[in-house]
Amino acid sequence: MSARNRGSLIITLYVSLAATGFGQQPLTLEEAVRQTESNHLYQMELMKVAALQEELSHAGKRLNPVLESEVGTGLIEGSRDHGFSLALTQRWERGGKRELRQEIAELEFEQARLEVEEFRRELISEVSLTYMELLSAENQLAIIRNRAERVDSLIQLDQVRLDQGEIPSRNLQMLQVETTRLAEEMDRLSHGRTLSQYHLNTLIGSPLETEYVLQDVVTERGPLPDVGRLVDSALENRPDLESLHVGLRLAEKNIAYAAARSRNDWDLGLGYRRNYSRTAEEAFLPRGVVESMTSSSNLLEFTVKIPLPIWNDGSNHVAAAITGREAIEHELAHAEAMARQEVMRAYQQVLFNQRKRQLYRESLLPRLEANLESIQTAYVLMGDNLLDWLQSHRDMSEALIQSLEIDLGVLRSIIQLEKAIGGSLGSVNQ
């Protein structure tokens, strides 16, 4: 096989693998976000909330009564005495503990539900970023494939010119080296793309080997809303902040419950007791006398157990609950400050990336493209300056890839901004 055919085969093989290796299932970003509901960790979090909901209906119920029974006998001592008792005890909860337990359980359920929303918010952000990175990798592969096709076309042209003695053989050798280098670059990008596809499949709950045809995402967005509105949206809509607000309400209920615990519960009991005693038979006593000395008793008993707050009045529980509320207040204040910072940083990053993209598109890329066309035209006509052509082609490819990275940076910063505000930019504009 000639060097020319071998170089063409390498390019054709990699282009074919890159073109056919991508899966046949189309996947938009919106569909990928919807499929996050199939994420296994998300399903696990939903199961935890469902379990809390099952327990919610029992939180405010009365405590179960206690049934006690005793049986006694004097057989060990040789006595024929015996007795038994049966008692039912019910705890009377004082201070409104039952109602408070129900309210606390409802707030804990709401907090757990918001934590699931926060988990999905983080998950959607990660899926969106992974989708964009995967799409960028595919576009980078397309750029390298396009460059490889141009080199292959030039190899075919130079082979004819070499046969006619118009150019030196080293021109063809340099192009074949470039072919090998591009093949290695496509292999590297394909490997990275495969790893990103695995990660995306794991996040959306798809089989690991599933491959998708990703749809292009519009990188041009309308003007950003006012940053003040974005901050307000974050403070109103983010589930992690709302969860902390619920935590404050929960802390208030815990203070009330701690105060209720200081009112000790009473145990009220109702029971029945039967005692039977019989004098032992003696030889010198007639049977009738012994039987007349046998006695039994039947008692109906009422009991009340009242703990006395002598050594511990429960005030420590109230103090601890108040401290817990103050800690949550500080946590909420810090979380809101961090949310403002995240919005401001992401907002500035979007503006910076948009300016950078505009500079690339309006200045650098057009100049590189014009320079490449000029050098390529000269080489096709004259066969000179191959090194300049190769360098210009590399510069153009690197600039295009850098442009893709800048587009990815714009989208990444927009995703971070939407994550920071807890919703889409479109919802803020409405």
General description of the model:
There is one protein chain. The protein is of the alpha+beta class and 430 residues long. It has a domain at 228-247 and 256-262 and 316-430: Up-down Bundle (Outer membrane efflux proteins (OEP)), CATH 1.20.1600.10. The chain has eleven helices and six strands. Strands 2-3-5-6 form a four-stranded antiparallel β-sheet, with no helix packed on it. It has a two-stranded parallel sheet with strand order 1-4. A hairpin with an 8-residue loop joins strand 2 (66-73) and strand 3. Helix 1 runs parallel beside helix 5 (169-204) and helix 3 (40-56) runs antiparallel to helix 4 (97-163). Mean pLDDT is 82; it is low at 1-23.
Radius of gyration, Cα only, in angstroms? 40 Å
Q: Percent helix among the residues?
A: 55-70%
Strand order, sheet with most strands: 2-3-5-6
Number of helices: 11
Estimate the strand proportion: 5-15%
Order of helices and strands: HEHHEEHHEHHEHEHHH
Low-confidence segments, ≥5 residues, pLDDT <50? 1-23
What's the CATH first level of the domain at 228-247 and 256-262 and 316-430?
Mainly Alpha
Structural class label: alpha+beta
Q: Which architecture of the domain at 228-247 and 256-262 and 316-430 does the CATH hierarchy give at level 2?
A: Up-down Bundle
Mean model confidence by pLDDT: 82
DSSP strand count? 6
Specify the CATH homologous superfamily of the domain at 228-247 and 256-262 and 316-430.
Outer membrane efflux proteins (OEP)
CATH topology of the domain at 228-247 and 256-262 and 316-430: Outer membrane efflux proteins (OEP)
Largest sheet: 4 strands, antiparallel
Gross morphology is elongated
**What is the rounded distance between the termini?**
65 Å
